[in-house]
Amino acid sequence: MTWSMKTISQLAVAASLTVVTALPVPLGVLALACTPLASQAQSVVKGLPDFTELVEQVGPSVVNIRTLEKAKANTSAGSSSDEEMQEFFKRFFGVPIPNLPNAPNAPRQSPRPNGRAPQSEEPAQPRGMGSGFVLSGDGYIMTNAHVVEGADEVIVTLTDKREFKARIIGADKRTDVAVVKIQASGLPVVKVGDVSRLKVGEWVMAIGSPFGLENSVTAGIVSAKQRDTGEYLSFIQTDVAINPGNSGGPLINMRGEVVGINSQIYSRSGGYMGISFAIPMDEAMRVSEQLRQSGRVTRGRIGVQIGEVTKEVAESLGLGASQGALVRGIEAGSPADKAGLEPGDIITRFDGKAIDKAADLPRMVGGTKPGTRSNLTVFRRGAHKDLAITVAELEPVKTGKVTAQAEETKSGGTAQSMGLVVTDLTEAQKKELKRGGVRVESVAEASARAGLREGDVILQIGNTEIAQLRDFETTMAKLDKNKSFNVLFRRGEVVQFVVVRPGR
């Protein structure tokens, strides 16, 4: 049952009257006893935010974006519908209109007398709908990359109903930010807010075109910041109602400033379920500046495959807190390879900035201009080490091969401890791995429970490097068989840590 504030107030006062009148108390005291409850309810009502001024202030800067695409011959209707439905569930770039013969809004053609298909080019058909907002008075507009992706034409409609054909200046799929341009002047411009001042629990408002309903306003609060759902940025999570067509619209704080771009929702049905995500405006502005300058975004890369550092592994290594990025693989010939990084290193700092979690590293490196000489701090075998590295440019499609696992060939000698039987690597295997190690021939007991498998190559035990069988036997002999120890190993193309617990 839903109670209004007025109903709650009346019930509270009635309850107070019932209790107080049962006691021999003067009427004056009765009035004093009732007053705080009523005034408290009224103060709550007065404290609710009023968004009317914000809508008047920011509303004219929000635009509707409609995209068109040319009809494609010999396109399977079922395939088109499936692709659009998958994209709909993944994102909510607008109201996709399947190009199906029986669809209510599908364009129809009159058959030719001779039954032949028309030879002229098909007109552009509606594709989707989204939102955007004006960055500059001369017509630069920000939206989501997925709103304009694949569009042959982009139509922008202002709040005064004027329509313009827009030119796509650039789009960055990694951050889902795009900039389009219309031929106009004197447009109302949004104010960009400081995302660092945004607080969890703060009221925010969204304006957009859900399901094509232009200039719809919804509101809620900031549910969380720094929500990791993307590789190159963390999102602002809110409970503002966001639906298909809101994509690219602004998230606005109570000062009338845009603090984010509404981009994604969490949904099991394709519709709003109380969780929505916005791209932080500071990152969006950095991307938009590059798009306006060159039409593309340039990012740095160092050529490593990384993973999280668990608390258990950090403690076993002596690192302390579970921080940094574990290097699981290194691309051959990459900046990381040339700088001397090794699989199993934990990168704790980049250019002096601490890396709290693995996701911080690609953002820091991606924001570094290619060609920049930077410093890395890594934790390797119990000690921190500084390395110099020259950042390369991140290509649209990554190429190169991560150092591969050695072939499964056997050599002489075995050592049995903690359920492990290992052998030395051949020289060819060592050359391919660019380091030594021992190959697991069989595994049982504690080592098997930890997750080690036959064919794994052990590279390090504790903080001791294992270059050959002799190192393995010496290190294992020194271990306290009643205490847990960590093992760094390679499996396939990556390395990882496990903690072996004796007798468990």
Explain the overall architecture.
By secondary structure, the protein is α+β, with helices and mostly antiparallel strands. The protein starts with a helix and ends with a strand. The protein has helices at 5-21, 27-46, 52-58, 77-90, 145-148, 281-294, 311-317, 335-339, 360-366, 427-433, 445-450, 469-478; strands at residues 62-70, 124-134, 140-143, 153-157, 163-172, 177-181, 191-192, 203-208, 216-228, 234-238, 250-253, 257-265, 276-280, 300-301, 304-307, 325-330, 346-350, 353-354, 373-380, 383-390, 392-393, 416-417, 420-424, 438-443, 457-461, 464-465, 485-491, 494-500. 23% of the residues lie in helices and 32% in strands. The protein has 4 domains: 5-46, no CATH class; 49-71 and 79-99 and 123-297, Thrombin, subunit H (Beta Barrel), CATH 2.40.10; 300-393, PDZ domain (Pdz3 Domain); 416-500, Pdz3 Domain (Roll). The radius of gyration is 31 Å and the shape is elongated. Strands 22, 23, 24, 25, 26, 27 and 28 form a 7-stranded antiparallel beta sheet that branches. The protein has a 6-stranded antiparallel beta barrel with strand order 1-2-3-6-5-4. The longest helix has 20 residues, at 27-46. The model is unreliable at 1-35, 41-45, 75-81, 84-119 and 397-415 (pLDDT under 50).
